[in-house]
C-alpha cells in the first residue's frame, strides 16, 4: 500500500486530500496542531510545522516504519492586509507557517525519499502569486517563496528520483476564505475563469490528479492564470 504524509490534515483541503487518499487505498499520516479525525489507515500526528524538531521527530517515526511515497505540503495560513498596514508579526507568521513549514517538511521527508531513491512532494500554493493579488502581500510573498523552493528542490532532487511540484488554487470553500467578502471571492474567481469557488473535495481531486502526473518543477493552477 502506498504511504502519504499530508500536512494541515485537521480540516479544509488537507482533510479532503486525506479522505480521498484513504478511499484510494493509501496509508496516510496527518500532521496538524489540532484534532484530526480517526479513520482506518490514518495516523494523526500532533505537529506544528513551524517547529523543525517536531517535524523531524514525526518524520523519523513515520519513516522508521517504512517508505513514504507522497508528501503533500498543505498546512498554511492566510491574512488579508493592506501592505502598508500589515503588522510585522503577521508577515513573520505567514512566512513561518507557509514557507518554513514547507521547508522543514521537505527537508525531513525529502531526506527519506532520497534514501529510498523515489518519492513525490506536492507543495500547495495560490493563484494570488501570479495575479500579484492586492491586499495579500505577506501571504503572496510567503507562497512565492514556496514556489521558488519547489523549483530549486525539483532540480536538486531530480537525480535521486524525487519529484517536486506545486499546485495552486484561487478561493477554495474552506475556513480560510469564510471571512472574505463574497464579492471579493467572485472577482478573484472571475479573473481565473471560474464561476464559483471549488469545494475542498474538488480541489483535492485536482491536487491528486496533479500528483499522479506532474513534471518535476511544474507549478499548476486550477483555473486560467495568464
Ligand atoms: N482556501 C483557499 O482559498 C486557498 C486558496 C489557495 C491556496 N490555499 C492553500 O491551501 C492550503 C490549505 O488551506 P485551507 O483552505 O484548507 O485552510 P484551512 O481550512 O484554514 O486549513 C489549514 C490547515 O493547515 C493547518 N495548519 C495551520 N498552521 C499549522 C501549523 N503551524 N502546523 C501544522 N498545521 C498547521 C491547520 O491545522 P491546525 O490548525 O489544526 O494546525 C489546518 O489543517 C493552505 O496552504 C492555503 O494557503 C487555500
What are its keywords?
single chain, 226 residues, alpha/beta, Rossmann fold, 7-stranded parallel sheet, 7 strands, binds NADP nicotinamide-adenine-dinucleotide phosphate
Quickly describe the structure.
It contains 6 helices and 7 strands; from the N terminus they run E-H-E-E-H-E-H-E-H-E-H-H-E.
Describe this structure in words.
With 226 residues, the chain is of the alpha/beta class. It has one domain (3-221): NAD(P)-binding Rossmann-like Domain (Rossmann fold), CATH 3.40.50. It contains 6 helices and 7 strands; from the N terminus they run E-H-E-E-H-E-H-E-H-E-H-H-E. A 7-stranded parallel beta sheet has the order 3-2-1-4-5-6-7, sandwiched between helices. Strand 1, helix 1 and strand 2 (27-32) form a beta-alpha-beta unit. The protein is globular. The relative contact order is 0.15. The mean pLDDT is 97.
CATH hierarchy class name:
Alpha Beta
How many individual helices?
A: 6
Secondary-structure element sequence? EHEEHEHEHEHHE
Globular, elongated, flat, extended or rod-shaped: what is the shape? globular
In round numbers, the mean pLDDT is: 97
Give the total of beta strands.
7
How large is the share of residues in beta strands?
15-25%
* Order of adjacent strands in the largest pleated sheet: 3-2-1-4-5-6-7
| Tally of discrete structural domains | 1
Q: Specify Rg, calculated over alpha carbons.
A: 17 Å
**Regions with pLDDT < 50 over 5+ consecutive residues?**
none
**CATH fold category name:** Rossmann fold
CATH superfamily: NAD(P)-binding Rossmann-like Domain
Bound molecules: NADP nicotinamide-adenine-dinucleotide phosphate
Q: Name the CATH architecture.
A: 3-Layer(aba) Sandwich
Helix content: 40-55%
| Structural class by helix and strand composition | alpha/beta
Distance between the termini: 39 Å
* Major sheet characteristics: 7 strands, parallel
